Amino acid sequence: MANKKKVIVTGFEPFGEHAVNASWVAVQELDRIGLGEDVDLFVCEVPVEYQAVQTLLPSMWTEHQPRLVVHVGVSGLAKAVTLEQCGHNKGYRRLDNCCFSPESECCIEDGPECISSVLDMDSVCKRVSETASGTKVTVSKDAGRYLCDYTYYTSLFVGNGRAAFIHVPPLGKPYSSEDLGRALQAIITEMLSQLEGGHAPARCNHQGHQ
């Protein structure tokens, strides 16, 4: 159907102590249950590699022309499903799965310090929490200066803000893959609803940077 909304949702491959990456498990569960008949869902596992992200994301946006791209990552510190409002350009020193980090320590040379999603994550959080999905949802403005933040910033830059990032806790701490899949379904459905309402792109300057 030509009027279907194309949505891309990505998770990450295993890295570090995360021998099983809850983000990709959650995305696979979402792929199983879907986002409804009017959404054309495409899922992808992203390498935990800076250079792979630099190549993969722009081609993904160009090839699929999605309405929205949602990246999902795991955080060992997360106790709730966390909606990230913005991505950051600088501070990437931690080595990836190929023992590489960008020499410039940034995503996009001369890019803005911070880019905010066109989505209002506080509003998404409030609406999803009211549906009593059984999964705690919260909002953050710091995605961690590793591949999660790097991927988010790159996608926001390429997609003019029509991207989102969701951090999930490790499996069983406390949520199952089914819990996380249902939470992603509810959150992304709400994000699409908000997008249909029409929001102007916004630059994030919560740290006073331009």
TrEMBL record:
Cellular compartments per GO CC: cytosol
UniProt entry keywords in alphabetical sequence: Cytoplasm, Hydrolase, Protease, Thiol protease
GO molecular function, one term: pyroglutamyl-peptidase activity
Alphabetical list of InterPro entries matching this protein: Peptidase_C15, Peptidase_C15-like, Peptidase_C15-like_sf
Biological processes per GO annotation: proteolysis
Family according to the record: Belongs to the peptidase C15 family.
PANTHER family found in the cross-reference section: PROTEASE FAMILY C15 PYROGLUTAMYL-PEPTIDASE I-RELATED, PYROGLUTAMYL-PEPTIDASE I
Protein name from the UniProt record: Pyroglutamyl-peptidase I
